[in-house]
Amino acid sequence: MKITDVRVLMFSLLIPPERRHRTDLGQAVKAEAAVVEVQTDEGLSGIGPAFGPPPVIRAIVETELKDLVVGRDPCAVEDLWERMYAGSRADLSREAGYSFPRVHRRGETIAAMSGIDVACWDLAGQAAGMPVARLLGGGGHDRLPGYASGGWRPADRIGEEVKGFAGQGFRAVKMRVWGEHGFTLQEAISRIEAARAALGESVDLMVDAHGALGLPEATALAERIAPCRIRWFEEPVSPDDHAGYRHLRARTTIPLAAGENEVTRYPFVSLLADGGLDILQPDVAVVGGLTEARRIAILAHAHHRLFTPHVWHSGLIVAASLQLAAAVPNCPIFEVPMSRNPLIWELMTPAFQISDGWISVPEGPGLGVSLAPDAERRFPYIPGPMYA
Ligand SMILES: [Mg+2]
Question: What whole-number distance in Å separates Cα of residue 63 and Cα of residue 72?
C-alpha cells in the first residue's frame, strides 16, 4: 500500500450568541476542527486530527509535509514520523541514530504531522482488519472509566453542575479554577469547596487552572484546597514554567497534571527528570500523533507516572485517544468533555457510547469511526478566530 494524496478537510461551527460563555481563554465565538485525510493506491483512506487553525494546517500539509509521505507505505509510521520531523535531514538522522529536527520543530507543524500520523495508524488498522488499540498490543479493555470534564459555574451553582455529572454515573469530575465570573483566590476556594461538599466523598474531584495562575497563587490555592481531597491539580501554572511545576510539587501533596500544551516527547523528558509532574496529558492532535503520544505513555510508565491524554475539540481526537488509552498500561481514567460542541459529539459516526460513566472503545478496524456523511454540509468552514 502506498500513499497517493494527503488533504486537509476544514470544519467549523458558529456558537449562538446566547451560548457564548466567557472563560479565561476569552469568549468563544466558534468551534473548529482540521481533519487530515491520507489516501492510498488500494482505495483505503485514513483520517487524523490536527489541532490548529485549519487553513494553517492545510498550508503546512500542502507545502511541507505531503511531498515527504506521498509514495510511501502508510503502515511504516515510525519511519514516516522521522521523515516528517527531520524533513530533508531524515536520512542523516537515520545514519546518526537520533533526530535532527527540521527548522519548524514545534507548533502547528507538529500538529499537522499529528494528523498525518493518526491517519496512517487508521490505515494500518484498516489494512490489518483490527482496531488501532489491538495493533498497539492492547485490546484487553473494551471500555474505560471516564471523568466528566466541565465545572465552570459559580459557587452557588457549581454543586448542582457537578452532581449532575455524578448523576450520569461518573465517579470523577474535573472543574475549572476560573469560573464563568473570572478568578479570585477566594472565589476559586469557595467553588471547589462547594463542589466537594455536593459530591460527597465517593466521587473524585480534579481541578484545572489552564496554566493561568502565577506560582504564588497556585501554591496558596493548593494549600487551601488540599482538605477537599483533590485527585489532581491540572496546569496550575504556565506550561512555559517548568521550574514552577517543580517548586509547586515540593510544596503540595496534591498530584500535578499537565501536558496538553507540550509538543513532542522532549519537554516530557525534562518534566519527568525534574520530578514536577505526576500525570502526563499530551494531546494526540498537538504532540505528534499516536506515535509520539504512545512514546510519552511508555516514558511515563517507566517513571511510575500516569498517562491521561487531553481530550477536547473534536470527535476524531476522542476516537484516536480512546484507541491509545485502551492499549497502554497506565491510563486509569479518560477525559469525557461535558461540552455539547457538535464537532465533538456529532462529527464522527458511529456515535460514542457512554454509559454509567464508562466510555466504550470503538470496535471497528482502524480508529473505528468515520466522518459523518453530512459533516461537510453541516459544519462548513468559516474563516476567523475562535475567540473574540
Ligand atoms: Mg486541561
Answer: 17
User: For residue 209, what is the domain's CATH number?
Assistant: 3.20.20.120
Q: How far is the CA of 174 from the centre of ligand 1 (A)?
A: 9
**73 C-alpha vs ligand 1 centroid, how far in Å?**
35
188 CA from centroid of ligand 1 (Å): 16
Q: Residues 256, 336: one domain?
A: yes
Question: How far is residue 308 CA from its own chain's centroid?
Answer: 9
| CA dihedral sign of residues 51, 170, 224, 198 | positive
CA of 4 to the centre of ligand 1 (A): 37
- Which residue from 345, 354, 335 is spatially nearest to 282, judged by alpha carbons? 335
pTM greater than 0.70 (yes/no): yes
Q: Encode pLDDT of 195-230 as tens digits.
A: 999 999 999 999 999 999 999 999 999 999 999 999
Q: If you measure from the C-alpha of residue 206 to the centroid of ligand 1, how many angstroms do you get, rounded to a whole number?
A: 10
Domain of residue 163, residue span: 143-371
Q: Is residue 153 part of a domain?
A: yes
Determine, yes or no, domain membership for 388. no
Q: How far is the CA of 222 from the centre of ligand 1 (A)?
A: 16
Q: Nearest-5° angle of CA 377, CA 116, CA 272?
A: 120
d(CA 358, ligand 1 centre) in Å? 20
* Residue 351 sits in the same domain as residue 260: yes
**How much distance in Å is there from the Cα of 208 to the middle of ligand 1?**
6
Segment 93-124, tens digit of pLDDT: 989 998 888 877 899 999 999 999 999 999 99
User: Considering its fold, how many domains does the chain have in total?
Assistant: 2
Dist. CA 274 → ligand 1 center (Å): 21
HSE-up of residue 148 (Cα within 13 Å, Cβ side): 27
Claim to verify: residue 208 and residue 68 sit in the same structural domain: no
